[in-house]
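Much of our argument rests on the idea that a fold can be written as discrete symbols. In the encoding step, the backbone of a single protein was reduced to a row of integers, each denoting a local shape. We regard such an encoding as a compact summary of how the chain folds. The record that follows shows the chain in one-letter code together with its fold in token form:
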Amino acid sequence: MLVNCAAYQDGRKLADIQPNDINTYLSRPGCFVWVALCDIEPGELAHMQRQFGLHDLAVEDATHGHQRAKIDEYGESLFAVLHVIDRQDDGELTQGEIDIFTGPDYVLTVRHGTRQNFKDVRARCEHDPDLLKQGPGFVLYALMDSVVDRYFPLLEDLGAEVDDIEDRLFVKADTRASRAVIEDMYAVKRRLMLLQHTCAPLLDAVGKLCGGRVPAICQGMQDYFRDVQDHLQRISKVIEGRRDMLTTALQVNLGMISLAESEITKRLGAFAALFAVPTMIAGIYGMNFRDIPELHATYGYPICLLAMLGIDLFLWWRFKKVGWL
């Protein structure tokens, strides 16, 4: 589906045009065309390939989607695959994709499986004609910068979830609550891994645009692409830190569970001792020996009961003092 198609020259928008008129504007000096497609239909990308002379391998990747984040160079053109992360109402993250074809006189974007649009990027470029004069290279930077900047709110939300989990660690709870904390840890860790798998390949790819042999399209834009690379490095470091915090929190949670189990074992041991003493005394006096002490004593039975009660009270006081009960 065609979202937008416009022609630009000398940093200013000329007009919204129809796809069949693209060749007319491509022939103008200093003019480039910016086309946006979403959830393409059969034949749409093939038409654009004929208009812009797109490479077959890049078209194949964009047609099928589900590509790894990357930036490939084909002659004077670039093909970039960026992942867009959407947060659902239930907090789960879903991954979409935007494929960007960039040439000396065109920019073509193809979106797959994402609700996000890039109208704000087009508006930003049109309101900054001095930078838009740089041509498709600046548009490529603006799109990449927008995608990367949208990772930061997701990272902040995940950080808040990690902080909430840490606060729940030391709250006295039962086994079910401890299990819920562990499940939440793994859920957050899975989302962090999705974000990491999105950023890590892109970090290496952006390095090609700001260092070494820079593609002709990106000449003069190295500082801008280096800024995108810095943002990706910050995101990667924060993700790594959050993952370490979750690992530590998991170890702490398991330690708290072990301490709770130890407390239960001590309590069971204390109660066992309380029952063991009367059982032992009753067992001894229940033996059928002729010469058992105090067997014929008048007050032997109540004295035996008082001895059991006294010893149990002493043990209860002692266990209570050391925190076993």
User: Anything to note?
Assistant: The radius of gyration is 35 Å.
